[in-house]
Amino acid sequence: MQLRKLLFLVSFCALAVISLNGCKAKPSSDGLIPITLQTDWYPQPEMGGFYEAKMQGLYKAAGLDVTIAPGGPMVVAQQQVASGAAQFAMGSSDQVLVFHSHGLPLVAVGATMQQDPQCVMVHEESPVHGFADLEGHTLAVKPGSIWFQYLLKRYGLHSVREIPATYSVANFLQDPNYAQQCFVTSEPYFARKAGAKVRTLLISSTGYQPYRVIFASKQFLDEHPDVVAKFVKASMQGWQSYLADPAQVNAELSKLNPAMSPEQMQYSVETLKSGHFIDGAGTPDSHLGHFTAARWNATYQQLVDLKVLERPIDPASAYSLKFVP
Predict the structure, then answer these.
(1) Which residues contact residue 69 at a Cβ distance below 8 angstroms, ignoring those fewer than 6 apart?
(2) CB-based burial of residue 31 (10 Å sphere; 0-12 exposed, 13-18 middle, 19+ buried)?
(3) Deepest in the core among 138, 198, 266, 325, taking most CB within 10 A?
């Protein structure tokens, strides 16, 4: 999301929070508490654990009637939570900190990924073998991306030509010098299927390591900590089951998102598992759903250095450790 658009929406959402009265969680006639989870994209394996928890009845067993609302390029998850249209949403820890500093009190309650699969994709024969090699090259990136601002400062890049990224690999396939922002779980699959040989450079390898998280409004968290605890616990159980055997959920995802083939879903799942993006195995954060104050503090300081925060905040106010393993 463009940073300017992000900050414009902060102002809108902050006004929505002032009059927000839809945070009350009341059981429906069947005794279940209705909950909406706003995802950050169309149905895909990157949110498979939530669908697993719903299909297995884990949410229902916890007393929750969960609706999973699909995202897309025009859906702003923070706005959905701020307006009360959703109680939980998927996002990233750096965005939660930015929104919080601009007056929108969002609180992350668990990690969906220990490492962000955001990366830069280049052709195998490209002279770009590290981020410092981007100097003098063109990179397709979503304008205002915070991680890109970090790269420019971290590696002293002054002559990188930035062009708007698309949700396609068409331009990449036509230009051997093309480099683009992508998710390692997605675009490389399409590029390789079209015959291209590619390499990827993970943004997390630079030291910029925001979590992928689920978050709620502070008001909802304060009023319903029991509901938050039940949702997080059932979601993590869903992720454990999904990683062990994703077949049933992937079949459902194919129905919900026919544009995503079974082969693509298999690629995404295998990439998520082999890269330990979700469980963080082999790292200090090797716990499903887990995050640490140290990582949040490090991200916060990086945002301070990049001058993307409206005002100083206590980073601990943007997350809660009460619900994570």
Answers:
(1) 36, 37, 38, 39, 80, 86
(2) exposed
(3) 198
Report how far residue 56's alpha carbon sits from residue 170's, in angstroms, rounded to the nearest whole number.
Answer: 38
Ramachandran area for residue 212 (φ above 0: left; ψ -120 to 50: alpha; else beta)? beta
26 neighbors 84 (Cβ within 8 angstroms): no
| Burial environment of residue 18 by CB neighbours within 10 A (0 to 12, 13 to 18, 19 or more) | exposed
Q: Which helix (H) or strand (E) holds 118?
A: strand 118-123
Q: How is residue 65 written in tokens?
A: 């009637």
H-only helix segments in the chain: 3-18, 48-55, 58-61, 77-83, 93-101, 146-154, 170-174, 187-193, 218-223, 225-244, 247-256, 262-274, 293-306
Q: Each residue of 173-194: pLDDT tens digit? A: 999 999 999 999 999 999 999 9
Which residue type is seen at 140?
A
Average pLDDT over residues 11-30: 54
Q: pLDDT tens digit string along 60-94?
A: 999 999 999 999 888 999 989 999 999 999 999 99
Query: In this structure, how many other beta carbons lie within 10 angstroms of the beta carbon of residue 120?
Result: 23
Coil/strand/helix, residue 7: helix
How much is the pTM? 0.91
Query: Which pLDDT band, with edges at 50, 70 and 90, does 225 fall under?
Result: very high
Residue 43, classed as helix, strand or coil, is coil
Q: What does the radius of gyration of the chain's CA atoms come to, in whole angstroms?
A: 19
Tokens of 325: 């393993």
Distance, CA of 216 to CA of 253 (rounded, Å): 25
| Residues 6 or more apart whose Cβ sits within 8 Å of residue 83 | 13, 16, 20, 22
Whose structure tokens read 């949403």? 89
Single-letter code of the amino acid located at 270:
E
For the chain, first and last CA: distance in Å? 30
Residue 225 phi, psi dihedral angles, 5° rounding: -60, -30
SS3 134: helix
Which amino acid, 4? R
In this structure, what are the phi and psi dihedrals at residue 181, rounded to the nearest 5 degrees? -70, 140
